[in-house]
Amino acid sequence: MRRAPRHLHRRPRLTRRGRIVVLAAALALIAAGALVPLLLKDTAPPEPPPPETRTLVVPEGWRAAQVYDAVDKALDAPPGTARAAAGTLATGLPPAAGGNPEGFLFPATYPIDDTTTPEGLLRYMVSTAVERFGSDRITKGVQRNDHSLYETVAIASIVQAEADTAEDMGKVARVIHNRLALGMALQMDSTLNYALNRSTLDTSHADTRIDSPYNTYARTGLPPTPIGNPGEAAMHATIAPTPGDWLYFVTVRPGDTRFTDSYAEQTRNVAEFNEHRRTAS
What's the rounded Cα separation, in Å, for the pair 79 and 72? Predict the structure, then answer.
């Protein structure tokens, strides 16, 4: 069989004009979207944008109930969701807490996004508290004062609630330590407020007679749990209180907290406080 001439096996070559025509046609197809699927066939799909990050601020001294409400609101969860999730946090807490995270929802600014869950956020708060309260300084202070970590957090929560200024924290802590050492009732209004789920400067005689383990007017020793979530400043004041023999204090007016070891002087200071409250109202 005769072979066809060699030139018949050659591929046709485009002239310069032909290449221009083909290129123009391809560009027209790309503009029309016809070649886009072919061009993207071997490319990875674009990654979704990262979730939008927001923040939740937990102030020093907030009670667990306030934290739960704020978490539900920040995460757009039904009311009560965070409170229910708190029941799963026992593994990260001291045994004395009995699974109650009060005192260990560390006050800070927390990042949140659409993937954040109430349980995950509360666990983050607890792990942050355990880390901060486990520092060498606090650990040594706890041992020096002969209190457990849980008792120290309970004292710090009262200091956080009672001190009018950061400078007063060390003195308030000293009053608590002095009273505990003498077996005196703490007589702290903040613990009554916790029992009554309120926040007020006014305490009545009827309040001091309520039947509650948080009534430190009627019972000696510390309340059964912390009464809020203290920050590091309150913890440091608790483990290293200001030296002094004070047994009483009262904030007569903002910025004017008076400490004394004299009951007679305390009585006069309380009378001045009541008069100031009366005239202010």
Answer: 6
User: Of the candidates 203, 189, 165, 199, which has an alpha carbon nearest to the alpha carbon of residue 248?
Assistant: 189
Cα–Cα distance measured from residue 57 to residue 70, given in angstroms and rounded to the nearest whole number: 9
- What size, in residues, is the chain? 281
Tokens for 201, please give them: 């400067």
pTM of the model: 0.81
Please tell me whether residue 134 adopts helix, strand or coil conformation.
coil
**How many whole angstroms separate alpha carbon 63 and alpha carbon 82?**
13
Cβ atoms of residues 155 and 238 within 8 Å: yes
Segment 58-70, tens digit of pLDDT: 999 999 999 999 9
* Extents of the domains making up the chain: 54-133, 148-280
Q: Please give the Cα distance from 153 to 227 (Å, whole number).
A: 9
Beta bridge partners of 215: none
